[in-house]
Amino acid sequence: MDATNPIPLETAPAPLEMRPRRGFNLFWRTFFFLALLLFGSIVAWLQTFRALESEPRAIQSAQQLASLVNLSRAALRYSDSIARVSLIKTLADEERVRITPREPKDKFELFESDELGERISAELKARLGSGTVVASVVNGERGLWVGFAIDGDAYWLLTDPSKVGPTRNSTWVIWLITAAALSLAGAAFIARLINRPLKQLSFAASRMRDGDFDASLLDEKVATSEIREVNIGFNRMAEQLSKIEQDRVIMLAGISHDLRTPLARLRLETEMSVTDADAREHMAADIAQLDAIIDKFLDYARPEPPQLEPVSLNAVVDAAVYAVGDYEDMRVAVSIPDGMMVLADQVELSRVISNLLENARRYGKTPETGVARVDIVAKGRDQWVLVKLRDHGTGVAPEALSKLTRPFFRGDTARTAATGAGLGLAIVEKTIHRMGGMFSLANTGSGGLAAHIKLRRS
């Protein structure tokens, strides 16, 4: 046995690293479709609102501006020069309306920047005359400018653009943002409300898969009748499965107890009554094998979930390697970084390593030497620890790889001569899954079978 030679850790095979294609979960799918529906409804509603409110708004704004211009024009026309100055000052101070002479060299930009502006300009020209000019900028100064004439003299009337309300575009954006925010909040609430029972069902199913039937019970008094029926059906199924599991454990324990008593008597009678040493040795070996098979059955049928805690992978592997150190037909090389800790059950993890070593010793011997050479390597990757245990035997047929972890399956000719229970790899896979890890088998490129274990890092 050589526990010091470093062995490179090959990349784990595809089955170990394979992940299902990621997509939207149910919450985000529901949220996306609800948000899309609501957003489409909002856009359609806003378009309808814009079409219906454009005409009345343009007429109302034009009426207000026309009235302001007409009043200003009439007041200026029938006032003397002193009163006119006072009137202009009063309009500027109290109404924020400024009246200035319009010069031919004035540079201006028309107010017709959008559909609403065009409608207001057209309405003002119809009410004040075709010579009326509506501008948004005059000589670089922004505002709502209305050009009109009094007895042949041209004037500009400057007023606050807010008199016609916010622009149509700004109103549309404000409504859209407000409605979209409210719609997204409502969609998130509805999606969460719909997704909550399914999330609880998924959690209960995962707990039941791990053997925790008590934690998998769902609320049978929910208000929704469909969800209530699903929860009741699931709880009854969990109760039946729990009862079946308990009956199975009791039955296997009874079989184990009832078989071991006659086996013990057979062993004693064999050692005392059989005179032929070879026959006595073979019979004792058969009885020991039957006892080991019973232990395998009990290991596979163990129902309680393991208690996970930080475990030193180095210590577990060293103990398992030490236990097989006296075997002349087996050599083990270990390469694990110091201080490698995993989240596992120490007893269960020791049983896993021991089963894999025993499997490699039985079926992974090199044909030329008849010795099983086993390499155990490990490394950390993110929040996981990858462990590989490989032999240098002949491997197995590719079509049999996925079946090796089935209970009682023997895949190749090397296994047909085996007299075990056929549960070793099945126990390993089940134990690793119960500890929240992953397990897979693969043939190596240089020959032999490799067992890949993925455990959570402590």
From TrEMBL:
One of its GO terms (molecular function) is ATP binding. Residues 254-458 form the Histidine kinase domain. It is a multi-pass membrane protein. The chain crosses the membrane at residues 26-46, 172-194. Keywords: ATP-binding, Cell inner membrane, Cell membrane, Kinase, Membrane, Nucleotide-binding, Phosphoprotein, Transferase, Transmembrane, Transmembrane helix, Two-component regulatory system. It comes from the Bacteria. Residues 192-246 form the HAMP domain. Pfam families: HAMP, HATPase_c, HisKA, RisS_PPD. It is an enzyme of class 2 (transferase). Its EC number is 2.7.13.3. PROSITE patterns: HAMP, HIS_KIN. This is histidine kinase. It comes from Polaromonas jejuensis.
